[in-house]
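Q: what sequence does this backbone want?
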C-alpha cells in the first residue's frame, strides 16, 4: 500500500508551491501525482508559438524563489526554465509520480483518509489531499457540425503538434482570446494565409515589455532588490481593482485608452469596427499585445467576425455562416478551457458518499475557494472564486497555502485526524463572495465570459483586492471548522 500524509494532484506552480510549503512546515511525507509524462504543469505543456506570460515576470514567480529574468514578460521557454529551477532548488523531482492520471478519489471515514485511484499507478492513500490540477487544464473544443470530417491537421493550442510544419500552409485559428493573440502574430508571417475566426472581440491593451540588462538581472538575483521590485509591480497592478469594482470613471478612462490604442493600430475603419467589443472593458479577460492588431491588417490575414463565423466543417475546410467555403490545411483550436464547472475533472466522493458533482450541481463554491463541508482534509488550489484579473495568480496560490498549511499543522499538532469546514461558514463566505461580485465588471459588464459557470454565477474571479484575500487566508479560524 502506498500511503502518505499528503498527496498533491498536479505538478505545476500550485503543486510546487504546496510541496515547498509542506517542506518548510517540516512535513516531508508527501507525493505529487502528475497525469502527464513530465513534471511542470502549464508552462511545460503550453508550447504553442508565441506563448508568454501576461503578468510581469518578477511578480509572476514564487516569492521564495527569485530568478534572474531576461525580460519583463517572460516567454514560455524561460518560464519552463524557471519551473525546472524551482523543481531542482527544492529537490522535488524525486517526489513526483508521472503518468498518474487520477480517475476518482474517495474519502474513507473509518480510516480518516483519502483513496486516490489512478489509471495506471494503482491506488494511493493519504490523510490530506491537495488538488492542484489547475483551472486551465481541461481544453474545450466546440462540437461544430462535421468537425470530425476534416481531412487536414487539427489540434488545440494546449497540445501544439510541433511535428507539423505550418509554414506556407493555409491555417485557421478558431478563437481570439489570450492564446490566440500570441499565436496569430507569431505564425502569420510564415503561413500562406491565416483565417482568424472571432466569435467575440476582446479589449486589448499595449504590452509594455523590456529586456533586462546584465546589472538588472544581477539585481533580480538578490532577494532585497527582487522583493522591492515585486512589491512595486504588485501595488501598481493592485490599483486596477478600483476600475474593475469601485469606479466607473476609472474604467471608462481605461476603456477610452483601449479605443485610442485600437484606432492607432488599425487604420482600416471596416476592420476596426469588427474589433470593438460590445461590453465594458474587464468583463472578459483583458488581452495584452502590441502586435495582434497590426497582424490583422496583413494582406495574408482574414478576420471572420461572428456574422462570418463557422457554420460547419467538411473534408477540406470551413463553411461560414455567410455562405463562404474556406479551404485550409490546418485548424488550430484556440477555444479555451472548462475553468468553472470543470474545476476538478475527476469524481470526488466525500463523507457518506456525498458527490462533489452533486454539491456543485448549481455552481462550484468553496470556503476561501479552498475547502468544503463533507470533504474533510481536502483542499483545492485555485478553486472557485480564487482567480484574479489584475495581478499574479501566484500571489493567490501563496495566500491559499497559509490556510492549507495551517489546517494540516493544526491537525498534526493537536494529535487529531481530520479538519472540515462547517456548512454555515461556507454558506456565509459564499454569500459574501456573490454579494460583492454584484458590484464588479465581471458581473455587470454586459458579457458572458468563461469567468461564469453555466448558472450565470461568476466562479473564476475573486471580487476584490488580492490583499483582502490574503487577509482572509492568513490564519485558520477554528470556529469555522470541525476538528476531529
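A:
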Amino acid at each position: 500500500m502506498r500511503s502518505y500524509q499528503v498527496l498533491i494532484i498536479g505538478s505545476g506552480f500550485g503543486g510546487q508551491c504546496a510541496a515547498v510549503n509542506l517542506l518548510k512546515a517540516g512535513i516531508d511525507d508527501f507525493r505529487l501525482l502528475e497525469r502527464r509524462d513530465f513534471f511542470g504543469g502549464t508552462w511545460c505543456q503550453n508550447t504553442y508559438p508565441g506563448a508568454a506570460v501576461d503578468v510581469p515576470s518578477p511578480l509572476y514567480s514564487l516569492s521564495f524563489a527569485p530568478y534572474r529574468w531576461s525580460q519583463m514578460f517572460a516567454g514560455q521557454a524561460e518560464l519552463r526554465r524557471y519551473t525546472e529551477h524551482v523543481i531542482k532548488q527544492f529537490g522535488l523531482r524525486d517526489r513526483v509520480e508521472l503518468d498518474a492520471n487520477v480517475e476518482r478519489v474517495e474519502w474513507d471515514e473509518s480510516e480518516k483518509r483519502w483513496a486516490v485511484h489512478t489509471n495506471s499507478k494503482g491506488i494511493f492513500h493519504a490523510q490530506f489531499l491537495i488538488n492542484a490540477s489547475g483551472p486551465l487544464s481541461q481544453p474545450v473544443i466546440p462540437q461544430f457540425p462535421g468537425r470530425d470530417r476534416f481531412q487536414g491537421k487539427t489540434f488545440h493550442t494546449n497540445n501544439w503538434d510541433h511535428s507539423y510544419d505550418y509554414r506556407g500552409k493555409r491555417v485557421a485559428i478558431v478563437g481570439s482570446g489570450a492564446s490566440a493573440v500570441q499565436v496569430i502574430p507569431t505564425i502569420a508571417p510564415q503561413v500562406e494565409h491565416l483565417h482568424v475566426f472571432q466569435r467575440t472581440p476582446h479589449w486589448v491593451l499595449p504590452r509594455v515589455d523590456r529586456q533586462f540588462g546584465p546589472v538588472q538581472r544581477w539585481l533580480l538575483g538578490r532577494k532585497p532588490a527582487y522583493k522591492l521590485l515585486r512589491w512595486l509591480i504588485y501595488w501598481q497592478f493592485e490599483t486596477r481593482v478600483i476600475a474593475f469594482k469601485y469606479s466607473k470613471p476609472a474604467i471608462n478612462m481605461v476603456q477610452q485608452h483601449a479605443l485610442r490604442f485600437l484606432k492607432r493600430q488599425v487604420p482600416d475603419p471596416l476592420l476596426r469596427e469588427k474589433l470593438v467589443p460590445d461590453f465594458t472593458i474587464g468583463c472578459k479577460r483583458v488581452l495584452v499585445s502590441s502586435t495582434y492588431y497590426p497582424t490583422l491588417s496583413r494582406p495574408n490575414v482574414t478576420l471572420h467576425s461572428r456574422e462570418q463565423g463557422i457554420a460547419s466543417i467538411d473534408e477540406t475546410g470551413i463553411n461560414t455562416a455567410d455562405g463562404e467555403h474556406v479551404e485550409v490545411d490546418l485548424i488550430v483550436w484556440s477555444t479555451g478551457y472548462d475553468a468553472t464547472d470543470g474545476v476538478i475533472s475527476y469524481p470526488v466522493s466525500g463523507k457518506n458518499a456525498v458527490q462533489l458533482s452533486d454539491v456543485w450541481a448549481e455552481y462550484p463554491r468553496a470556503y476561501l475557494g479552498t475547502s468544503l463541508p463533507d470533504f474533510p482534509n481536502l483542499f483545492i488550489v485555485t478553486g472557485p472564486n480564487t482567480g484574479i484579473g489584475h495581478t499574479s495568480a501566484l500571489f493567490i496560490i501563496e495566500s491559499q497555502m497559509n490556510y492549507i498549511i495551517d489546517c494540516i499543522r493544526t491537525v498534526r499538532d493537536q494529535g487529531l485526524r481530520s479538519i472540515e469546514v462547517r456548512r454555515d461558514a461556507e454558506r456565509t463566505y459564499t454569500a459574501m463572495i456573490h454579494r460583492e461580485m454584484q458590484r464588479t465588471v465581471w458581473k455587470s459588464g454586459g458579457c458572458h465570459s468563461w469567468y461564469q459557470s453555466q448558472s450565470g454565477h461568476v466562479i473564476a474571479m475573486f471580487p476584490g483586492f488580492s490583499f483582502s484575500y490574503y487577509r482572509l487566508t492568513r490564519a485558520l479560524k477554528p470556529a469555522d471548522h470541525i476538528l476531529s
